[in-house]
Amino acid sequence: MNTPEISVIVPVYNEEQVLPKLFERLYGALDAMGQTYEVVFVNDGSRDRSAELLAQQFHRRPDVTRVVLFTGNFGQHMAILAGFERTRGERVVTLDADLQNPPEEIGKLLSKTGTGIHVNSSNGVTTSSATYSANFEKGKAIIDVNFRKIDGVWKLNGIHVKADAPQAPANAPSASPEGRGGT
Q1: Which residues are paired to 119 by β-bridges?
Q2: Does the pLDDT at position 159 exceed 60?
Q3: Are 103 and 25 in contact (CB under 8 A)?
């Protein structure tokens, strides 16, 4: 497979009930964009039928579906990092499996990446950095996220949080790259 334009990482934990709807909406939205893509699902030790449903989806769409199965529950952040290690796309989006964020918004998100995203390449190493603004109940933090792509694999290079309000929560470094606070 050639390098896809977009990789979508979806951490999954006990999402049996929502996965069929996620598959329908996510693949529909990505197909409609008309760009090459891959979806990397990371099953974080689910105890329901999530792994089985992911395997079925892989067999339905093996050309664009990748599945990583954890042997236990290691948490959403580890699942996302494992997804980054396995993506091949030029641009990467993370999406929660619970459909709180609509997959149909991926196109809008990617259309905004021209602003605030800086990509540099030298000696076969691509570095991508982005600045996200995360709003919290009592303040705001600016999160700078830096990734490096070495030999086709994205690696988290660092996260730096700058609070512009004294009330920004102590857990701000766990803000996720999609621009909102969370775990």
Answers
A1: 128
A2: no
A3: yes
For residue range 106-140, list pLDDT tens digits in order: 888 777 665 444 444 444 444 454 444 444 444 44
| Residue 168 and residue 96 share a domain | no
Q: What are the angstrom distances between the C-alpha of 16 and each of 3, 29, 53, 93, 98?
A: 30, 20, 7, 22, 10
Tokens of 156: 């988290």
| Domain span holding position 151 | 117-174
Mean residue pLDDT across the chain = 75
* Count of domains for the chain: 2
141: Cβ–Cβ under 8 A, 6 or more apart, which residues?
133, 134, 161, 162, 163, 164, 165, 168, 172, 175, 181
Helix (H) or strand (E) holding 6: strand 6-12
